[in-house]
Write a structure and sequence with these properties.
This protein has 2 domains: 8-266 and 477-484, Aldehyde Dehydrogenase, Chain A, domain 1 (3-Layer(aba) Sandwich); 272-448, Aldehyde Dehydrogenase, Chain A, domain 2, CATH 3.40.309.10. Helices cover 36% and strands 19% of the residues. It contains 15 helices and 23 strands. The chain has a 7-stranded mixed β-sheet with strand order 15-17-18-13-12-19-20. The chain has a 5-stranded mixed β-sheet with strand order 21-6-5-22-23, with no helix packed on it. Helix 9 (283-295) links the parallel strand 12 and strand 13 (307-311).
Length: 528
């Protein structure tokens, strides 16, 4: 496909009349062709109206039809994978192998949602049959299930040009639920976004669906993204990025005349707790694991461990020395954008003013940068809240501890995070149930003897956590439970069978699992 630099507005290409911007080669900062035109307010309005109209049919489409759409998109991504990887490599400086893996993840999660929605039990159909003879009051016939909310605004992420962007998990889960989608493409990889948007648009046409099911907008700055969240026809928002950006969108969504949910994944330093038993055997391997995790992808993962608590015990010196050696001898890293590299280097400079020790590789010129290991004691960490702030890039903070009570108090003081990791033995777990209880309240995912980078896309996965990790800790942005962000329950009381959604009718022609009078069953309701 030849790139044009134009947005997608309900199956058609937009205009080039808006303020333009260039894609950047992440490795050298050079401009790339074509130029990309910021979408206009008129194009946004057209996309939103088309999405609202498409919702009338798409929201009522069958799970099988939507599953077919998701599989068609996945097949299209696979066919175009070579061009996608080539363009994304230029725009992000991510290695080809990483991006090839991202193609697989993108297609895998599209197909996972397809298989999840195809059968229909996910809609949580519940039926309480009428009890006309119940005393002292009769019970009416009550039936409920989950329904899509309407057009969803999705913001592409900088660090995952495929898996968290135009056809990423947010789009997959929103479409799976029956919601039209308007994506605001990330300016860091507009060409990659254009290629994927073309695939989705073609898939919708191939399946004979309303073109308003999908649109994609460009924005040089913030105006169109803000207008998208404010638009009265948008019913929900999904965002992955910085705390500053996520909070701004949350505030916009809440300030609307009709507020809407805004699901943001924002800031997390994903603490690692090294317990004493972890250092009894080969502490160097534990250090290598931590180094590999905080430098993976140039430290630009939302699950990067940016904080590790190390006990002053046998093996701690060996752990620390190995981590220092790996950091000081590491190669330079190319960041996703020059702006991200500059922000990383500024964060490093600010942390150096906080009185913490550091070990760093040789300095590098933006957009290349270097790994840094910071170290401090637990008392300093507790009394300086700035040390809890996320640094997006290949750095971590090692906090040395000796007193267990102080460790517990420090864990209690932590903000919400996506993950927390415990390194240790089974005996350590048994002896630290109080620590685990604290962490269970602080994060969405607890790991034992592993590292948090690498999020499996599955039914049980939780990629969320208390604020500021996300805006709403009740939900996840990865895995099939992510669909719950874009649905709402609706109830029917005393409706005749012919007026009920198919999933709620007595005969259960779909053969789905339903909760009937408190019993989970696939059986039809037999009236006597």
């Amino acid at each position: 496909m030849k790139l044009s630099g134009l947005p997608f507005i309900a199956g058609k290409r937009g205009s080039d009349h808006g303020e333009s911007f260039a894609a950047r080669n992440a490795a050298n900062g050079a401009d790339m062709h074509p130029l990309y035109a910021s979408s206009s307010v008129e194009e946004l309005n057209t996309a939103a109206m088309a999405a609202s109209q498409a919702f009338e049919t798409f929201g009522k489409s069958s799970g099988a039809d939507r599953a077919a759409l998701l599989r068609t998109i996945a097949a299209g991504v696979e066919v175009a994978s070579a061009q996608l990887v080539a363009r994304a490599t230029l725009e992000t400086a991510l290695p080809e192998t990483r991006l090839q893996g991202e193609v697989g993840r993108t297609c895998g999660q599209l197909r996972l949602f397809a298989s999840f929605i195809e059968e229909g039990s996910w809609q949580n159909a519940r039926i309480d049959t009428a009890l006309p003879d119940r005393k002292p009051n009769s019970r009416p016939d009550i039936r409920s299930m989950l329904f899509p909310v309407g057009p969803v605004a999705i913001f592409g992420a900088s660090n995952f040009p495929l898996a968290f962007s135009v056809a990423g998990g947010d789009t997959a889960s929103a479409l799976a639920a029956g919601n039209p989608v308007i994506v605001k493409a990330h300016s860091a990889h507009p060409g990659t976004s254009e290629l994927v948007a073309a695939i989705i648009t073609e898939a919708i046409a191939e399946r004979g669906m309303d073109a308003g099911v999908f649109s994609m907008l460009y924005d040089k700055g913030f105006a169109i993204g803000q207008a998208l969240v404010r638009h009265p026809l948008i019913r929900s928002v999904a965002f992955t990025g910085s705390k500053r950006g996520g909070r701004a969108l949350m505030d916009l969504a809440a300030a609307r005349e009709c507020p809407i949910p805004c699901f943001t994944e924002m800031s997390s330093i994903n603490p690692v707790f090294v317990l004493r038993g972890a250092l009894a055997n080969d502490p160097q391997s534990k250090a290598r694991g931590l180094y590999g995790s905080f430098t993976l992808g140039a430290g630009q993962f939302c699950t990067k461990p940016g904080l590790a608590f190390l006990p002053e015990t046998d093996g701690a010196a060996a752990f620390r020395e190995e981590l220092q050696l790996l950091t000081s001898t590491s190669d330079g890293f190319t960041m996703l954008t020059t702006g991200i590299a500059e922000a990383y280097n500024q964060s490093l400079a600010e942390r150096h003013t906080l009185g913490v020790d550091s070990t760093a590789a040789s300095s590098a010129v933006s957009p290349r940068t270097h790994a840094v290991l910071f170290q401090t004691d637990i008392a300093t960490f507790r009394h300086n809240t700035l040390l809890q702030e996320e640094i997006f890039g290949p750095s971590t903070l090692l906090v040395n501890w000796n007193d267990r009570k102080e460790l517990l108090a420090t864990a209690e003081s932590l903000e919400g995070h996506l993950t927390a990791t415990i390194l240790g033995t089974a005996a350590d777990l048994a002896n630290n149930q109080d620590l685990i209880a604290i962490l269970e309240r602080k994060v969405g995912r607890l790991l034992f003897n592993g590292y948090p980078t690498g999020v499996e896309v599955s039914h049980a996965m939780v990629h969320g956590g208390p604020y500021p990790a996300t805006s709403d800790s009740r939900f996840t942005s990865v895995g099939t439970q992510a669909i719950l962000r874009f649905v709402r329950p609706r109830c029917y009381q005393n409706f005749p069978q012919t007026a009920l959604p198919e999933a709620l009718r007595d005969e259960n022609s779909l053969g789905i699992w339903r909760l009937v009078d408190g019993v989970l069953t696939r059986d039809p309701i037999i009236r006597r």
